[in-house]
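Exercise 3.2. Students should predict the tertiary structure of the chain below and write it as structure tokens, then compare their answer with the key that follows.

Predict this chain's 3D structure.
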Amino acid sequence: MLKRSVCLIVFALLVAASLPGQELKPLIVVASFKVHPAKSEAWLAGVKKIYLPALEKQLADGAILAYGVHEDFLHRAGEPNFEAWYVVPDYTAMEKVDNALDAAASEHKESMGQMMDAIDFDHHSDYVFRTVIGNHKTLPAGAKPYWYFSRVQVQAGKNEEFKKGFEKYMKPTYDELVSSGAICGYDLDVEEVHSMEPGWHWTAICLPNLAAMDKVDAKFDEMIKKRGPEEQAAVMTAYRELVVAGSHRDSVAVSRIFASK
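Answer key:
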């Protein structure tokens, strides 16, 4: 189940870490599931029983930087409603974690069967993402953050230009929100293993609670007012020239399981 969990964002998702003197662009491994609502608690119990000990060991060993399971806060008919994810520094760590999760699953075959019964595998997908830009604080043990995801498709050949625009116009405001404690972190992610249409970019905001979005909205409103109408119009014109019209989508999720370094 998490055997081949390759990343979303979750996607998810997601906690970017940093190494002293070196920018780390971690991989996010995500598996999305459509779990029957009446069986969601039993499914989560299975995840905790089968996989949590292995995930905790990999976190302690440094192979994993963060992991979690989140559930969609805003449900969509026919869509997956849970994402299980973990963050690793590189492919070597990904293989180590995947082998550990495979071993855990093989030791709990009966429980695995019960978990499978809770899932509609016609709506299951795996992904691997790469964090391009990120800034996160360490969360306390037991934290169950909310996640606000925003995705947009960038036009072919304009990925680097989009990244530079994000760094210039968005990153300073997000960094202020992290520094003030209004949000726990954020990251800009792209697919590392390309399984979707090209160009998709995800911005993930990690929130201590849902009310934190009021602070995010207020801060960006303040930033826009400082720019003035002419500069803001120029920024929006440049943005529209970079993205595929109508591709923007948002989603909100709440953590059911979460741990990070």
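Discussion points: The chain is about 35% helix and 30% strand. Residues 43 and 115 are 5 Å apart (CA to CA).
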